[in-house]
Design goal:
Layout lengths: L7 E3 L6 E3 L3 E6 L5 E4 L7 E6 L2 H10 L1 H6 L5 H12 L1
Antiparallel strand pairs: 1-2, 3-4, 3-5
Helix pairs in contact: 1-3
Length: 87
């Protein structure tokens, strides 16, 4: 029987590998449009962040996502990430 591969991704803040479902993906398109990717399949450069309110606050404070995607992340994106953690 073939063993199914579990997709792992690295959080840009903690640098720890996690199962893809435990992370949130933020994408940047060629047009420099930043969005939260809920499907995990959106086109563009992606960065993963752990679903933890403290880690998202740390990313906002130190601008870690800005550096990872090489674009200025609007505060609306961080607000949406925090809201997704509370769900």
């Amino acid at each position: 029987m073939k063993i199914k591969k579990i997709p792992m991704r690295t959080c840009v803040v903690t640098k720890q590998k996690e199962v893809k479902e435990r992370l949130l993906r933020v994408t940047k398109t060629k047009e420099q449009v930043v969005s939260v990717d809920l499907t995990g399949k959106a086109h563009g450069r992606g960065a993963y962040i752990t679903k933890d309110i403290d880690i998202i606050k740390k990313a906002r404070q130190k601008k870690i996502l800005d550096k990872a995607l090489d674009v200025n992340i609007p505060s609306v994106i961080y607000d949406k990430l925090e809201a997704l953690c509370n769900d």
